[in-house]
């Protein structure tokens, strides 16, 4: 049985254990550029023993940002500050990954920590107020009552796919060893997948095959651009949790195709395509999704969502429900979670902390 502290080798990269830090938008970049904040935020997870650290959704163009404070890799000035973070993470034994993203119809909002902003009242910032016009497969807004996004033309679809590839080249220069395409949470790729947000009548809409086209083409372009010896993941929302929306069966079909394209592993999140979905949130609620995609599509998966307990994480790996566990909020609470998990599971020696900590605790 695999163990939480077993290594995992994908292509030429070896994770020191099965513990990953899930991408977390910090909304703390200026003109897309990382700062000292990112060095400390990401660096602390490397010190704490996590194996894989995927940096937050990083926009491939300014219009693809959720907010004006998002991270970006649409120009070369954004490379250097990220390289500082990847150097540090690598120095302390973690594999740095980056999630390339386009926010699609969910772009142009205020950072969630903005005073007065709640989940319920988060709305589009209009161009007249300093925002920009979001883009989507169809002119259907995310927030009812907001102006509709601009439906992309075929030429615009191609040019956004090129922006993904350009950003991947910058990610490589920034020192990343793992590339993730963001295909989840209602952002651009997911909005093409789901019939609830995609009502196109051309080759990118209608049938399942057509709705998968944007994700598959973009993943394929990225896979071919990204070096052969480095792994690539795709994060998906494995279900919309809405009847008539994207389903777990659709995710299995997508998983098979992504595998054929050379994608190494799928991160199985869920939801966030529409506001009204009823999500059965509880500890490990998305683990069955990772398990099903893994089993039925025959591709490695990462499980995420309310995984907080060492024993819970160990069981997910030992029972073959996923190949990697990803933690987000629990890592914010304790960036040294991997170390603590090893202690709790009587495997202290499995996590090697940096020397100045390791001899002392
Ligand atoms: C502050 C915050 C920012 C997030 N940003 C991203 C992101 O950039 N990309 C992404 O795919 N998911 C993002 N997520 C979702 C997390 O990666 C994760 O899937 C989710 O929080 C569930 O895991 P948890 O229960 O361990 O927090 C974010 C979550 C939080 C709390």
Write up what this structure looks like:
This protein has 361 residues and is α/β, with parallel strands linked by helices. It has one domain (8-358): Alpha-Beta Barrel (TIM Barrel), CATH 3.20.20. It has helices spanning 36-47, 79-91, 154-173, 188-193, 208-225, 248-260, 287-297, 310-318, 329-333, 337-344, 355-358; strands at residues 8-10, 13-15, 19-21, 52-59, 71-72, 95-101, 135-136, 150-151, 178-183, 232-237, 265-269, 300-304, 324-327. The strands form 3 sheets. The protein has an 8-stranded parallel barrel, surrounded by 7 helices. A two-stranded antiparallel ribbon has the order 1-2. Strands 7-8 form a two-stranded parallel ribbon. Helix 6 (248-260) crosses helix 7. The mean pLDDT is 98. It binds flavin mononucleotide. Flavin mononucleotide (FMN) binds next to strand 4 and helix 9.
Write a short abstract of this structure.
The chain is α/β, with parallel strands linked by helices and 361 residues long. Helix content is 33%, strand content 16%.
